[in-house]
Design a protein that fits this description.
Oligomer: single chain
Shape: rod-shaped
Number of strands: 11
Radius of gyration: 55 Å
Order of helices and strands: HHEEEEEEEEHEEHHHHEHHH
Structural class: alpha+beta
Helix content: 40-55%
Main location: membrane
Family: Belongs to the band 7/mec-2 family. HflK subfamily.
Protein name: Protein HflK
Distance between the termini: 147 Å
InterPro entries: Band7/mec-2_domain, Band_7, Band_7/SPFH_dom_sf, HflK, Membrane_HflK_N
Number of helices: 10
Subcellular location: Membrane
């Protein structure tokens, strides 16, 4: 064919590319080279010059080449141009994309993955947003890929922020976001914001500054990072919803939170002192948790012993009083017998453990009765036998 020398797969008018020429490629370009992927329109080339070039090529293929073209030749040229122009309306939607068709600048349909057709440019346009792609951006840090490694460089104008207690902190964080896969959100993403990446980055920086500005530096540098990340994500989502951006913020992750380089050594000393303070507090609490239960147990033991002694004393006193009452009742009935009994019982208690000599005043003679201490005799008898056994 006359146009076989055209490179690529974009058709006779060099409209080929990535997203939607007549043969499945192109950036939604029409036969005139217009139709960018996002907004705007192209300017068709000079029709007179185009027809002139086409006539020169048709002379080489039509019968009687070299002569002037008649009305039939011009009609054929117009029909060929029209067919090629209509063929540029075919486009392919890749997996993970959604085709948004516009006719005269108005959204008319959204198409699934596959081969589809819409009016060519400038009548129609097609946008192909990647709704399943997870996008990521960094704030406060500029990442550069060098070979297989990634180098990070601080961006002070983005990372330096003022805290709620009027300190300066250096914050770098990442934001992950994507397009919401609904019809209205896709339309909002395409037509309500001009620079989605820049908009998300500006909203992220603003939200982080607002949250950091209401938080003390101690909480930011230590244990409160998860709360800050959630608050920033929530505030970003509210702001983007107010813009009708059609964007969903999936995650906010703080990469580095440090004091400025000029005072970082002093902050590290403060952090070390606070760590020591926390360690000493934990040791004190552990000691208190060990000593206090022991003291409480000892106090409970002493209290129980006191209660037992009290109960014992009261019981003994009650028993003695009852015994006295019983004796007194018997004493009223038989005073002499009771006195004699009490006398004998008292002597029994007093003399029971003492050596005794019994004298009978009424007996004839000296009055001393012979007394045989059987327990002493037993002790004296056992001693010689033990000595005899040892001698043998």
């Amino acid at each position: 064919m006359p146009w076989s020398n055209q490179s690529g797969g974009g058709g006779p008018w060099k409209g080929g590319g990535n997203n939607g020429g007549p043969w499945g490629g192109g950036n939604n370009n029409g036969p005139w080279g217009g139709g960018p992927n996002r907004g705007g329109g192209g300017t068709p080339p000079d029709l007179e010059e185009l027809l002139k070039r086409t006539q020169d090529r048709m002379k080489t293929v039509l019968p009687g080449g070299g002569g002037s073209l008649g009305a039939l030749g011009i009609l054929i040229i117009v029909l060929v141009v029209l067919v090629v122009w209509l063929a540029t309306g075919f486009y392919r939607v890749q997996e993970g994309e959604v085709g948004v068709e516009l006719v005269f600048g108005k959204v008319v349909d959204q198409t699934p993955p596959g081969l589809n057709y819409n009016w060519p440019y400038p009548i129609g346009e097609v946008y192909l947003p990647q709704v399943q792609r997870q996008r990521e951006l960094t704030v406060g840090v500029q990442e550069t890929v060098v070979g297989t490694s990634v180098r990070a460089r601080d961006v002070p104008e983005e990372s330096l922020m003022l805290t709620g207690d009027e300190n300066i902190v250096d914050v770098g964080f990442k934001v992950q976001w994507r397009i919401r896969n609904t019809r209205q959100d896709i339309n909002d993403f395409l037509f309500n914001i001009q620079n989605p990446q820049g908009t998300v980055k500006a909203v992220a920086e603003s939200a982080m500054r607002e949250v950091v500005g209401s938080t003390n530096i101690d909480s930011i540098l230590t244990q409160n990072r998860v709360t800050i990340q959630n608050d920033v994500r929530t505030l970003m989502q509210e702001t983007l919803d107010a813009y009708k951006a059609g964007i969903e913020v999936t995650e906010v992750q703080m990469q580095k939170v440090d004091p400025p380089q000029q005072v970082i050594d002093a902050f590290r000393d403060v952090q070390a002192a606070r760590a020591d303070q926390e360690r000493i507090r934990n040791e004190a609490e552990a000691y208190a948790n060990r000593v206090v239960p022991e003291a409480r147990g000892e106090s409970a033991r002493v209290l129980e012993a006191a209660n037992a002694y009290k109960d014992q004393t009261i019981a003994e006193a009650t028993g003695q009083s009852q015994r006295f009452t019983k004796i007194y009742e018997q004493y009223k009935n038989a005073p002499d017998v009771t006195r004699e009994r009490m006398y004998l019982e008292t002597l029994e208690k007093v003399l029971g453990s003492n050596n005794k000599i019994i004298i009978d005043s009424e007996a004839s003679g000296p009055g001393v009765l012979p007394f045989l201490p059987l327990d002493n005799l037993n002790q004296r008898g056992s001693a010689p036998s033990s000595r005899q056994g040892g001698t043998q």
